Amino acid sequence: MKYVCRLCGWEYDEALGDPENGIEPGTKFEDLPDDFACPLCGAQKDEFGEE
Amino acid sequence: MKITTDIKYVGVNDHKIDLFEGQYDVPNGMAYNSYVILDYKIAVMDSVDARFGHEWLDNIAAATGGKAPDYLIVQHMEPDHSANIANFLSAYPNATVVSSDKAFRMMKNFFGKEFEDRRIVVKEGDTLPLGRHVLSFVAAPMVHWPEVIVTYDKTDKVLFSADGFGKFGALDVEEDWACEARRYYFGIVGKYGAQVQALLKKAAGLDIQTICPLHGPVLTENLGYYLGLYDTWSAYGVESDGVMIAYTSVYGHTKAAVELLAEKLKAKGCPKVVVCDLAREDMAEAVEDAFRYGKIVLATTTYNADIFPFMRAFIEHLTERNYQNRTVALVENGSWAPLAAKVMKSMLEGCKNLTILEPVIKLNSAMNDDTKDAIEKVSDELCMDYLAKQDSTANKNDLKALFNIGYGLYVVTSNDGKKDNGLIVNTVSQVTNTPNRIAVTINKQNYSHHVIKQTGKMNVNCLSVDAPFKVFEDFGFRSGRTVDKFEGWEKLRSDNGLVFLPKYINSFMSLTVENYVDLGTHGMFVCSVSEARVITDLDTMTYTYYQKNVKPKPQTEGKKGFVCKICGYVYEGETLPDDIVCPLCKHGAADFEPIK
Q: Which of B230, B267, B347, B594 is deepest in the core (most CB within 10 A)?
């Protein structure tokens, strides 16, 4: 499942995770920490939507 | 215009534009700024709006004395700055474009070209040497577009801030900075407070003496002032004290209520009251004022089972920009099926930290006595702090101030030789630390006071935020002379033989009484500490926390009389006896309030 940052367009792919920021591949979007921020623009989880 | 010896201004003024960014009225026009840095290599910062290409290219030629620039730095792709990129590259076939990866992809979308053969892609931390000057690039994503970079020249200590620190108004018009900068900021960048905060944090690490934005004047002095405003704005802080009233009124009735409210606010000491007719005044100015002040009033009429369109648009402008941290009062008009307040409340639901005042001021077509009553109450609420600070209007005998002293909550245990006892106390403080002395004050009516006066020892257990109401029922609402308060509790003992609680406490202290002070109704025990243990990391429960989260709502439905604010005991009757002592928790008449 892919999620897109509605502010800047950065894509979170659950299969790939975000290892540079400590998120293992396969981490589901709802399991991301509450204070997760888009690595490009800093947007919070509530600014993300399903692709 | 010269900014430093090597940095020159080559931007243009636009007095023909009708709406900036397709929506903003700009009575004093607009400036599109661009700068040239003259060094061993020559760099041009951004381009200008489509209609000014020739003027801009002429400015560049004049600034460089005819020499061809080497670089075009593109910080931002919005067309008012990027429209002449291709023209520049045609005029200067040997120039290189320097920009972010995202920006080049936007160039492909805008111009059909990405300039792969003549470009340098830069990201956060990259540098570009020009000779004496070295430019470093800082990413500013979503300030206010995703591709934005800002540029810092370490040599002249200049920050090229892209759209940050800009304002409406051409540079050949004298006007106050803050007003048009604020309207510009909240209109264009307002949604991106978090991203602006991130950029300000990065900028704090740079020695900046001049700010060169893409709109508005170059800022050279007193930069703390501009940075301070940007910090307040982007943190959604309140900039100015006062009340802003935004209204729509079709035939003047809602307007009359608004005018009466404004009058009351001014009379009650409100330092600034701003009233805005959303249909007739500049919407972007209304938005600016809503963010400037900390208290707003929204007044509108029910319309098509929704709210009047200008108010809907206004509230959407606010919520889109993450409106938060403020107090809102509502005025609703409805001639047959009033819905306005409900709709406004639901539109504001997602806003963080917004306090919606009660009562809602209501009109059924026109003001009546109930409306005026509500206006009086709301104006008191909005002006509460102004009234209290003004010598002529302050209630100087408002003993409710004493309720704001603030306390933790403690179970104080003792033993009368035959059995263990405990009670709830809030009056515990450390009074000195060389040596450590803790003062515990207990009502003489409590059995524990008698026990401790005789035995000279007690344990003070600090209740943590997880303590349930049962703790207060067991230790606070019964007398230990007759009842075994510890029935059902596991009893752990400290070295002095007294009980400490097995749960719901974050620490306890064993105290030995060193001095006793007779306070009439209470006795104060001033004690040394013989044992002290920290049990958990949870916070201590405050009295406020207990009132808000633990004390259950009193059973007052259908009853006439008074309710004890401490424990919920209901006294039924016409009048409350002055000397009443709550049978449950021993508090007096001052802690009772009428059942509404």
A: B230
Q: How far apart are CA B288 and CA B273, in angstroms?
A: 14
In angstroms, what separates the C-alpha of B141 from chain A's closest C-alpha? 5
Structure tokens at B447: 């059995």
**Chain B residues near residue A8 by CB distance under 8 angstroms:** 141-142, 146
Please report, as a single letter, which amino acid is at residue B518. D
Cα radius of gyration (chain A)? 10
pLDDT exceeds 80 at position B555: no
The confidence score (pLDDT) of residue B119 equals 97
SS3 (DSSP) at A31: helix
**Pairing state between β B457-463 and B410-415:** antiparallel
Q: Are B49 and B14 in contact (CB under 8 A)?
A: yes
What confidence tens digit (pLDDT) does each residue in B174-218 have?
999 999 999 999 999 999 999 999 999 999 999 999 999 999 999
pTM for the full model?
0.86
Q: Which residues contact B15 (CB under 8 A, 6 or more apart)?
A: B29, B170
- Tell me whether residues B142 and A9 touch, CB distance under 8 A: no
Q: Do A42 and B146 touch (CB under 8 A)?
A: no
Say if residues B409 and B546 touch (Cβ distance below 8 Å): yes
CB B330 within 8 A of CB B298: yes
In whole angstroms, what separates CA B116 from the centre of its chain? 45
CA dist., res. B181 & res. B333, Å (int):
34
- Cβ-based burial of B204 (10 A; exposed 0-12, middle 13-18, buried ≥19): exposed
The beta-strand segments (E) located in B29-108 are: 30-32, 35-37, 43-45, 71-73, 96-99
Contact B193, B170 (CB under 8 A): no
Dihedral angle, C-alpha B19, B20, B22, B24, nearest 10 °: -70
Count Cα neighbours of A12 within 13 Å in the Cβ-side half-sphere. Answer: 34
Taken in order B323, B328, B334, B338, the sign of the CA dihedral is positive
pLDDT at B552: 81
Strand runs labelled E in B46-112: 71-73, 96-99
Interval B161-171: pLDDT, tens: 999 999 999 99
- How far is B224 from B159, CA to CA, in rounded Å? 14
Q: Across the interface, do A40 and B198 touch by the CB < 8 Å criterion? A: no
Helices (H) and strands (E) in chain B, counts: 16, 34
Query: Nearest chain A Cα to B147, which residue?
Result: A8
Residue-wise pLDDT tens digits, A11-20:
999 999 999 8
| Residue whose token pair is 């026109």 | B366
Indicate the residue of A9, A42, A44 with minimum beta-carbon distance to B198. Answer: A42
Comparing CA positions, the residue from B76, B190, B64 lying closest to residue B139 is B76
Phi (first) and psi of residue B507, to 5 degrees:
-170, 170
Backbone angles phi, psi at B4, to 5 degrees: -135, -175
